[in-house]
From TrEMBL:
This is Beta-galactosidase. InterPro entries: B-gal_1-like, BetaGal1-like_ABD1, BetaGal_gal-bd, Galactose-bd-like_sf, GH, Gly_Hdrlase_35_cat, Glyco_hydro_35_CS, Glycoside_Hdrlase_35. Keywords: Glycosidase, Hydrolase, Signal. Its EC number is 3.2.1.23.
Length: 641
């Protein structure tokens, strides 16, 4: 994210803007003395800012993944690396977690404030509002409440599923008034607005894209627009929009030339140049460490070609918002780690990496003026060790069960109005004689109990054999052999505690519900053999309200499903990482802030805790672990690994 400096050029008249763009529908004319024009040359060869050729040098960062107190620091880091633009996703499901209830203000949700901060720092903006964004974010940014419809279709036009497009319309109705004043034509920094995201990797319905474009225009956001696709998907499915610029995933100078040859009327740019890569739970190591995009950057600088580094700064998928990948049949499920460090030039903690320096020096060598100084590093703290004590049990903090008529059969989270967290399915097994538990299907991880006896678990993601054996967890939803009646009695209570991990964010398996999807059955269980009905179901969203209301107390002997708490007194604050390498699988909160998930299978074993979430004096760390009944140390470290 570099930025040379806004061109200080007088605004063009509407007629002259039309002349330089060759397309009056996509000439952003000045809305007053403060407005600028941004458009395209008549032959599509250039982006034009106030009538002059303009190279977009952009870096991607997402305000939802960055603590608000650090927004300005990260923008300045981008500018100091030579970026004149920042590209950002807007995560719809972070703004509208419940149908019709929008939040544009709390925590990291004030997108307009981030955009205004970009302008204050002299940086332009490429806005990527979806409604689908991918981004290794839960369900690609689409709200999970839509999955309450058994036959829902996503990313389709109104004629194919009016429920989806009605929700999209409501989203645009609420977002557009906040975006319109920030368009370049109205004196803001937003140069272009993206229509959908990589739709060519999903479909080829031009009517769907046209409907989205029309929605934005009808609500006062009239472009310029652009689309983002891989070159081969663009060539095959023609998923650009009329008059809109083209951004290319994995783009470089040669793919820009190919797109220009196919679509000569509009400019093309390298919309996602990957200086790193995403990492899944269970990967051998963090991905993207060997990536080097120096050649791509050099070619773009030499040719005056526009580009966007994805990610320049990845940040963190705090809370339960990390996504997942799966094949198109929703198999081979791979949830993403909490960190979105991405091996990006600016680290998760905001530090300049060696590649930051390399790319900064490279870009600076092509610019006529020196770059701003690199901002001072954010202070870090390390060396503290805490050992949380058992504090509360999930079993003593169950809410009221849902009405029995809604739980005859087990159903997913979404059918009960829950987005994320955990859910408990409970049933008494009268006449139990042993057997095998067969669940269709666990999404995504479950621990199973007969009364207070841990019986094992289910993992949808593939976990190493050694871990599966140690935890008595089956892989890929394979059936689980239960303890014999001699061990647990002939009428034990069956408890299935299910964790929903990230929803699929890419491909055709987007409809990725959480919890138990279809049925629970016993095999080889005598009179109980067959499907089990008549459940008690308890919703455990583990949201702010739930955590704040925890009742302390842990029974003896303890049963897995424990909250551990530690108090640590700090003389000074700084960014830190909580090392969870001695823990098993769970979630961490610091002073009420959800840092995200940890898991012993790695490769991530440390969770980022930003300094603004700490305070001098007393701080509280809360850990919920699915397996451990005994505590373990947590150390403060300076880096992710």
């Amino acid at each position: 994210m570099e930025r040379r400096r806004f061109l200080q050029v007088g605004t063009l008249s509407a007629l002259s803007a039309m002349a330089v763009t060759g397309n009056p529908a996509f000439a952003a004319t000045a809305g007053g003395t403060k407005g600028h024009t941004f458009g395209f040359a008549g032959d599509g060869s250039q982006f034009l800012l106030d009538g002059r050729p303009f190279q977009i040098r952009s870096g991607e960062m997402h305000p939802a993944r960055i603590p608000v107190r650090y927004w300005r620091h990260r923008i300045r880091m981008a500018k100091a690396m030579g970026m004149n633009t920042i590209a950002l996703y807007v995560m719809w499901n972070y703004l509208e977690e419940r149908p019709g209830v929008f939040d544009f203000h709390t925590d990291r949700r004030d997108v307009a404030a981030f955009v205004r901060l970009c302008q204050a720092e002299g940086v332009w903006v490429l806005l990527r509002p979806g409604p689908y964004v991918c981004g290794e974010w839960d369900l690609g940014g689409i709200p999970p409440y839509l999955l309450r419809h058994p036959d829902i279709r996503l990313r389709v036009k109104t004629a194919d599923d009016p429920r989806y497009m009605a929700a999209v319309t409501r989203y645009i109705e609420h977002l557009a008034p906040r975006i319109r004043p920030l368009l370049v034509a109205h004196g803001g920094p937003i140069l272009m607005v993206q229509i959908e995201n990589e739709y060519g990797s999903y479909g080829d319905d031009a009517e769907y894209l046209a409907e989205l474009r029309r929605l934005w225009i009808d609500h006062g956001v009239d472009g310029p627009f652009y689309t983002e696709d891989g070159l081969s998907q663009l060539e095959r499915n023609h998923t650009n929009v009329p008059g809109g610029a083209i951004a290319l995933s994995g783009g470089d100078a040669s793919s820009i030339a190919a797109a220009r040859a196919a679509y000569p009327a509009v400019p093309a740019m390298a919309g996602e140049v990957y200086p790193g890569w995403l990492t899944h739970w269970g990967d051998d190591t963090f991905q993207g460490a060997d990536s080097d995009v120096s050649t791509t950057i050099r070619a773009c600088m030499e040719g005056g070609l526009s580009f966007n580094l994805y990610m320049l700064h990845g940040g963190t998928s705090f809370g339960f918002f990390a996504g997942a990948n799966a094949d198109d049949a929703s198999g081979h499920y791979q949830p993403d780690i909490t960190s979105y460090d991405y091996e990006a030039p600016i680290s998760e903690q905001g530090a300049a990496t060696p590649r930051y320096t390399t790319y900064r020096d490279l870009i600076a060598s092509y610019l006529p003026e020196p770059l701003p100084a690199v901002p001072a590093p954010i202070p870090t703290i390390a060396g503290t060790t805490v050992e949380p004590a058992p504090y509360a049990s999930v079993w003593d903090n169950l809410p009221d069960a849902l009405p029995a008529d809604r739980t005859v059969d087990p159903r997913p989270f979404e059918m009960y109005g829950q987005n994320s967290g955990f859910i408990l399915y409970r049933r008494r097994l009268e006449g139990y004689s042993g057997g095998t538990l067969d669940i269709r299907w666990v999404h995504d991880y479950a621990t199973v109990f007969l009364d207070d006896t841990y019986a094992g678990g289910f993992s949808r993601p593939l976990i190493p054999d050694a871990v599966a054996e140690a935890r008595h967890v089956t892989n890929d939803n394979a059936p689980l052999v239960l303890p014999p009646a001699a061990q647990v009695g002939d009428h034990p209570r069956l408890d299935i505690l299910v964790e929903g991990m990230g929803r699929t964010n890419y491909g055709h398996a987007l409809v990725d519900r959480k919890g138990i999807l279809e049925s629970v059955a016993l095999r080889d269980a005598g009179a109980l053999t067959g499907d089990l009905t008549g459940w008690e179901v308890f919703l455990l969203p583990m949201d702010d309200r739930f955590i704040a209301a925890l009742k302390p107390g842990v029974r003896t002997p303890p049963r897995p499903g424990i909250f551990f708490r530690a108090t640590v007194h700090l003389r000074s604050t700084g960014d830190t990482y909580l090392d969870m390498s001695r823990w098993t699988k769970g979630v961490v909160w610091v002073n009420g802030h959800n840092l995200g998930r940890y898991w012993e299978i790695g490769p991530q074993r440390r969770l980022y805790c930003p300094a603004p979430w700490l305070r001098r004096g007393r701080n509280e760390i809360l850990v919920f672990d699915l397996h451990q009944t005994e505590t373990a140390p947590i150390t403060f470290e300076r880096t992710l690994h």
